[in-house]
Amino acid sequence: MKNLLKTVLFLYLLLITVIPSFAAVKVAPTLIELNANKGNGNYLTTSFSVQADKNETIRYKLYPEYFTITDQGKMHSEPVSANPDNLIPHARFVPNEFTLKNGVPQLVRVTFTDLKSLPDGESRMVMFIEDVAAKEIILPNKNKNVNTRLVVKTRLGIPIYIDKGRFIKTGTFNDLTVDKENGNLVYKMKLSSQGNSKVRYRGKAQIIKDKTLIQEFNMNSNTIRAAGIFEETGKLPKNLETGNYILKVILTYKNEKGENKNLIKEVSFNITNSI
Question: What's the pLDDT at 61?
Answer without folding.
Answer: 96
